[in-house]
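in:
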């Protein structure tokens, strides 16, 4: 199935067969986006959901699927489309539904957050949670299309921009090349800056995904750059994902230097570049026992007490390497990330 990315100025520019579309959306958008509310009125089959990790439960999925089936079960077939409008949890949930209902419906994502626009709405992963563990049930089910709506994304609160920046910078490091090296963050109109750079960052991710679509070769693991310690900060300190990834990139520089993959000179160059993009070490130190617990729950664990860590060697070149959890904690203590 071919995948396409489309940027449009407004909802008015979107053309879908409304009478054969199951619209699944974050119910908060009815208040947060008058433009979405007006546009959504014309869809006869629409299903608002409460976004968040609670949505991605088997109970929620069962209730939702039964409701949809009661309303459209006699009409819907595999030519119908699930149109998911929301952030990562809505995309995961609606994507999983699309992959299994009627043995697979068409899928289109319209991300409503910078984070989902740059990351989760691309790559084909769907997921539900199980017994408190994230993303234990899921499928690889690429959307036919992701539509980025300018009026929706630029209406987000300014604080949400940081969620996009972390993933944008990660993509720049992975890509190397002219785009990454020339990436500069403006003092104003940062939403416009993110909007302009979204296609290039998404292109980086999709190139990696295409080389390992079902995560069988390990190549896709490089997308976890910055995520190992980022997930610790999310779990322990409640940082947003994008902000945590930004901090995780700095931690990755520290680990890469001590693993002999990055010189001190190049490490400092990376830190200066990140600082210019608004990413500096701001997180409070994590207690050692909390860091160890979070590391040991990481889904990227290798054998026993090791994690598959993504080291930085230079712009455009990273390396997957097993590293002992105790070694990561030691680096964290030495550099002030862990206490």
């Amino acid at each position: 199935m071919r995948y396409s990315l489309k940027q449009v100025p407004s909802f008015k520019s979107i053309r879908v067969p409304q009478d054969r579309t199951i619209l699944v959306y974050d119910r908060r958008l009815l208040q947060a986006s008058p433009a979405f509310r007006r546009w959504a009125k014309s869809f006869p089959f629409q299903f608002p959901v409460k976004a968040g990790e609670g949505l991605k439960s088997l109970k929620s999925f069962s209730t939702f699927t039964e409701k949809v089936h009661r309303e459209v079960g006699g009409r819907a077939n595999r030519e119908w489309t699930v149109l998911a409008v929301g952030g990562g949890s809505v995309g995961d949930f609606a994507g999983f539904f699309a992959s299994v209902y009627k043995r697979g419906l068409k899928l289109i994502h319209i991300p409503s957050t910078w984070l989902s626009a740059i990351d989760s709405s691309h790559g084909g992963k769907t997921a539900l949670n199980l017994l408190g563990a994230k993303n234990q049930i899921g499928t690889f089910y690429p959307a036919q299309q992701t539509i980025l709506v300018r009026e929706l994304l630029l209406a987000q609160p300014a604080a949400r921009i940081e969620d996009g920046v972390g993933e944008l910078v990660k993509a720049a490091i992975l890509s190397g090349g002219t785009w990454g090296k020339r990436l500069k963050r403006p003092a104003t109109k940062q939403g416009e800056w993110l909007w302009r750079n979204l296609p290039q960052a998404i292109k980086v991710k999709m190139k990696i995904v295409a080389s390992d679509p079902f995560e069988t070769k390990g190549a896709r693991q490089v997308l976890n750059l910055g995520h190992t310690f980022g997930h610790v900060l999310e779990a322990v300190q409640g940082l947003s994902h994008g902000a945590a990834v930004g901090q995780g990139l700095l931690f990755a520089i520290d680990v890469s230097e001590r693993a002999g993959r990055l010189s001190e000179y190049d490490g400092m160059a990376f830190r200066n570049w990140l600082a210019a993009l608004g990413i500096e070490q701001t997180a409070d130190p994590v207690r050692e026992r909390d860091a160890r617990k979070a590391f040991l729950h990481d889904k990227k664990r290798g054998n026993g007490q090791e994690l598959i860590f993504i080291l930085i060697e230079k712009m455009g070149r990273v390396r997957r390497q097993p590293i002992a959890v105790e070694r990561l904690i030691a680096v964290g203590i030495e550099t002030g990330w862990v206490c």
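note: Strands lie at 4-8, 21-26, 46-49, 81-86, 106-111, 128-130, 133-137, 145-149, 306-314, 317-324.
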